[in-house]
């Protein structure tokens, strides 16, 4: 499909720079393409229970954002040091990370980069790495001098929260972002971007869902920085997705299959949990235990196998995420929904408002 089919104009003032307070006071646009002329209705996130049924199951991504934005100095024999920035996006081994580097063109294999000099890194004064591989689009593979938990601790000490570029361009990251850019149920460290639909949930909203008998299940997909990369191709056929690591355990798979068997619905909170569940599902809709790297690219024409509803934020134009929601609820339906959201003041992107989408029959 042509990528320009997924384009739209977003006024700059619609980009949210902070989350709603409290989180479940954010607006919620409910979109049901199967509801005749009444496809849209305006609500708040705290109204979510009224659209669910006892016996439904919500699926959350419990990944935890790490401070994956690193600033350092590149060193090369015979060359002066140069300031570089690296955003970690996928762990390859206990001591290796794939990263997007700036300025990427000047970095070569064998370069040593020293991150965090002058800061306390465990018992060291710096976190050092060697550029082991170099790919397209500024992607590199860094082999660190530390490994495993020691490396995790060092990254936490010198790294910064990798705010999305549309926020970082407007204000610097601050201490508040360490809490704001994290779901209340985050537990598995490894993401460099938050599963932002989950940012809307509060203990009181969880209590309301529990009281009505809605199940809560967790999967893990470590969101990578590739989620922010624009689609530069003119046709979706030519776009290459970046892979992300995740898993669905056997217990969760069995419980979700039981929900479907008794007529309940699966509601994914965020496109990350949806992509993971659809990666784990067979053609018959059965969800199997799954682990590995997924690069599933969902565009209109994709047949969804397991997911019935999707809660998600409002996404960038020409992005893979806007393509995904258009596949889920229909391109014309989503274009109309986004037009309504823009005209009525919904807040967009990571810290913005949410939507609840029914799958198009």
From TrEMBL:
Keywords: Cytoplasm, Glycosyltransferase, Queuosine biosynthesis, S-adenosyl-L-methionine, Transferase. It is an enzyme of class 2 (transferase). Its EC number is 2.4.99.17. Pfam families: Queuosine_synth. It is found in: Cytoplasm. One of its GO terms (molecular function) is S-adenosylmethionine:tRNA ribosyltransferase-isomerase activity. Belongs to the QueA family. HAMAP family: QueA (MF_00113). NCBIfam families: PRK00147.1, queA. Monomer. Transfers and isomerizes the ribose moiety from AdoMet to the 7-aminomethyl group of 7-deazaguanine (preQ1-tRNA) to give epoxyqueuosine (oQ-tRNA). This is S-adenosylmethionine:tRNA ribosyltransferase-isomerase. It comes from Rhizobium mayense.
């Amino acid at each position: 499909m042509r990528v320009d089919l997924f384009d739209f104009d977003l006024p700059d003032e619609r980009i949210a720079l902070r989350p709603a307070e409290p989180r479940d006071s954010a607006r919620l646009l409910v979109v049901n393409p199967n509801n005749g002329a009444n496809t849209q209705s305006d609500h708040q996130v705290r109204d979510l229970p009224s659209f669910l049924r006892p016996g439904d199951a919500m699926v959350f991504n419990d990944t935890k954002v790490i401070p994956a934005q690193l600033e350092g100095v590149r060193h090369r024999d015979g060359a002066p040091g140069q300031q570089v920035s690296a955003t970690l996006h996928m762990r390859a081994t206990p001591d290796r990370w794939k990263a997007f580097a700036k300025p990427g063109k000047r970095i070569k294999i064998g370069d040593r980069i020293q991150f965090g000099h002058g800061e306390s890194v465990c018992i060291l004064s710096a976190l050092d790495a060697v550029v082991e591989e170099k790919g397209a689009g500024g992607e590199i593979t860094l082999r660190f001098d530390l490994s495993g938990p020691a490396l995790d601790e060092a990254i936490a000490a010198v790294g910064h929260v990798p705010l999305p570029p549309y926020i970082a361009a407007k204000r610097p990251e601050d201490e508040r972002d360490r809490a704001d850019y994290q779901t209340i149920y985050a537990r598995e460290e490894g993401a460099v971007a938050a599963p932002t639909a989950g940012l809307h949930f509060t203990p009181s909203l969880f209590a309301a869902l529990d009281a009505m008998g809605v199940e809560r299940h967790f999967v893990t997909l470590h969101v990578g920085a590739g989620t922010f990369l624009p689609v530069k191709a003119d046709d979706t056929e030519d776009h290459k997705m970046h892979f992300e690591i995740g898993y669905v355990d056997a217990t969760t798979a069995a419980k979700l299959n039981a929900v479907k068997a008794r007529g309940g619905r699966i509601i994914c909170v965020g496109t990350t949990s949806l992509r993971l569940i659809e990666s784990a599902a067979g053609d018959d809709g059965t969800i199997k235990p799954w682990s590995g790297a997924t690069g599933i690219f969902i565009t209109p024409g994709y047949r969804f196998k397991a997911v019935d509803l999707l809660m998600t934020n409002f996404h960038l134009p020409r992005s893979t995420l806007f393509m995904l929601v258009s596949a889920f609820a229909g391109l014309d339906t989503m274009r109309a929904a986004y037009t309504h959201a823009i005209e009525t003041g919904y807040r967009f992107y990571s810290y913005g408002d949410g939507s609840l989408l029914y799958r198009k029959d």
